[in-house]
Protein: alpha-1,2-Mannosidase
Amino acid sequence: LQILGNVSEFQRVVNVLQEGVDFDIDVNASVFETNIRVVGGLLSAHLLSKKAGVEVEVGWPCSGPLLRMAEEAARKLLPAFQTPTGMPYGTVNLLHGVNPGETPVTCTAGIGTFIVEFATLSHLTGDPVFEDVARKALKALWKNRSDIGLVGNHIDVITAKWVAQDAGIGAGVDSYFEYLVKGAILLQDKELMSMFLDYNKAIKNYTKFDDWYLWVQMYKGTVSMPVFQSLEAYWPGLQSLIGDVDNAMRTFLNYYTVWKQFGGLPEFYNIPQGYTVDKREGYPLRPELIESAMYLYRATRDPTLLELGRDAVESIEKISKVDCGFATIKDLRDHRLDNRMESFFLAETVKYLYLLFDPDNFIHNDGSVFDVVITPYGECVLNAGGYVFNTEAHPIDPAALHCCRKRKEEQWEVEDLMREFYSLKKNKKFLLKRASNHGEGESAKDLEDASSEKDREKRNSKKSSHSLLSCPSQSFNSKLAVLGQVFLDNT
Structure:
């Protein structure tokens, strides 16, 4: 809401949240979904609240009611990570913890999609437990990749045995790769980026064909499903984040041809046949292709990406708009509608469209402007740009992660000396007095110029400091189609 400029509504929502939300309830919740939606949403709202005009408490961003709620919600998820492997169960009861009969089989994305939110929470609260469990889960997946460097789709979190051995970039795996890259950017973490780059090599070697990405058997690399899933359309945007723009654009244009064929992306598209897959013809207004367009447009300014945005707006308005919202397209072949509107349409699709066409939005800040806030730990730079979106499109300010940690006493002493030095240099009387006593040909103007240079250096230093992507609803223990072995419901 703040990104879209609706400040009064943002304030109203924050006020409602501040009245209290009870997480101590007897409800079974998805660990993955609760993290990306609830924890991620609260953290993002917390970090955006001051910019939105909400009065924040002393100590913000290291404290605040929304941060405390995010921490409370995240603590309810921690029991799920208490497994021999460190990989979490897929579901946890918010009151009682993991149910005794809970299945240990979880999808890869449900294990590897925590580092953005949990590391942010650890850095803001000072409690390392959240980042620690997220890292342990990531390392467990890395440890259990196949000999050819691929991960499967579902794994037993107790035994670390792969239950579904299909490897790809789409449903059930997608946000694991996304979080390796975004976690590396957020934390400036070389290990996470190294993991992704190794995966990227294996993905290119075994799953990439003519700029499409197919599904393969994780141990053999043989093609099992020559299908494109709409959830995979995040991949060009992810490629752009690591600088692989040329490959990203070629893959994006493949996906865009599918969009133009149907006026949207079907859930599954059979690449050899060039048509939809039976029972997967729908388009629930997913954001992934538009998300990639936004990232790629920031990188290239290619007008083709704006054309996709225009097509998306026109398609959604023409075939999806109803009296009380925007309906899911049940079948793209005839544009029949379903009686539902997914939450990610508002959380992601509309947001990414807005940001694609709003080049001056603060989210796109390049660091030329920023805010300096005082925290219990000293000065802190915020809102300098470089926001990292979680997989539900909640933006996290990476600069905030440096606001709430204690620094070594020696560092404070050096900073105090430097601050005193610059303060003296700025004093004009001091400069004139020094100039009159110097006697070596160095004028007051020279000293003032030197001071100005130091001031510029200090300013520049400040400037530089700074979908429903879930387990697939379709089961992998399913019948296989004769052509393509595509995902189908058990029914």
Q: What stands out?
A: DSSP finds 16 helices and 21 strands in the chain. The two ends are 40 Å apart (CA to CA). Residues 139 and 307 are 40 Å apart (CA to CA). The longest strand covers residues 371-375.
